[in-house]
Specification:
- This protein has eleven helices and two strands, in the order ααααββααααααα.
- By secondary structure, it is mainly alpha-helical.
- The protein has a two-stranded antiparallel ribbon with strand order 1-2.
Length: 292
């Protein structure tokens, strides 16, 4: 029983990180209809940014979330308003798939040139501390990572639900033509949404850097994980990302514990295929789809 509870605890903690890493992908997919294959690059860039600020300036990775988020928000906004918008306007949404794939390849090679191919980790002072809850044991760094992920997800949900900016994003996602006729600058909102997704991905990267080792090549895995989370939980909402992320974390933890660590990817993709066959809209559906 203790092993089962420990596995559940590990899965929930891992799922919280998956949720934060995927929420930006889900938002961009839901509002812009773009499968952003550079999403993993933003996650890894956040991890490298946190590593740089920690190694050179001694800034804690959790505090580094703010400058990293601001920088990647600006990068994401400019990226969407230039390269992606040009590709979509001159061809189609499918062109954005090819363009983001190409940019991801170039960005990955660029990160390898700058930081090298070695595996990196961020080790703040609390990295080796742990807490004991009865028979269960958990690392402090994982609790901190889960708490930070939940805070950021709740903050994003409040922004989307309670602010004028959030209502404008939802209106643009549901009826872009009606939103434009109402005076909203849809193209600018698309850029801001993409920037917000990039900022959330970068924030998750800073957290991931203190929990797991990473390299530039890790971006592929984080893009795939985000896609699976969106398929499991649903498109466009922090709640869907949270449900999908927790489910994916539990699948990963139970597969590693009871079947074998080498089969976690196979189990994740098996669930992905089953979900696409049984409920392709995800457990919570499309947050912006009812009015489309």
């Amino acid at each position: 029983m203790t092993l089962f509870l420990q596995t559940v605890l590990n899965g929930l903690v891992l799922g919280g990180i998956y949720s934060l890493a995927a929420v930006g992908f889900s938002l961009v997919f839901g509002v812009l209809g773009i499968v952003n294959l550079t999403h993993g690059i933003f996650v890894v860039a956040g991890a490298y940014g946190a590593l740089f600020l920690f190694a050179r300036m001694g800034i804690d990775p959790l505090l580094a979330i703010i400058p990293i988020g601001l920088v990647l928000f600006a990068v994401g906004y400019v990226y969407q308003r230039t390269i992606i918008q040009w590709a979509v306007s001159r061809a189609s949404l499918v062109a954005s798939l090819v363009v983001t794939f190409g940019v991801a390849m170039m960005a990955r090679n660029g990160l390898q040139l700058v930081f090298g191919p070695d595996v990196h980790t961020i080790t703040p002072t609390y990295s080796f501390m742990s807490l004991t809850l009865g028979p269960l044991r958990i690392d402090v760094v994982r609790i901190v990572a889960l708490g930070a992920s939940l805070v950021l997800l709740v903050a994003l949900a409040l922004v989307l639900a309670r602010t004028h900016f959030g209502r404008a994003i939802r209106a643009t996602a549901q009826q872009p033509l009606a939103a434009e006729l109402s005076g909203l600058n849809v193209r600018n909102l698309h850029g801001l949404t993409f920037g917000l997704g990039a900022a959330m991905a970068g924030a998750s990267g800073a957290i991931i850097g203190i929990v797991q080792p990473f390299t530039a090549a890790s971006e592929v895995a984080w893009t795939l994980n985000a896609f699976i989370v969106v398929v499991l939980g649903g498109i466009g909402s922090p709640a869907g990302a949270l449900v999908g992320g927790l489910l994916l974390g539990l699948i990963n933890a139970f597969t590693a514990q009871y079947i074998g660590p080498s089969l976690t990817q196979a189990a994740m993709f098996l669930v992905l295929v089953l979900m696409l066959l049984v409920r392709p809209s995800g457990l919570l559906g499309n947050a912006f789809g009812e009015s489309r």
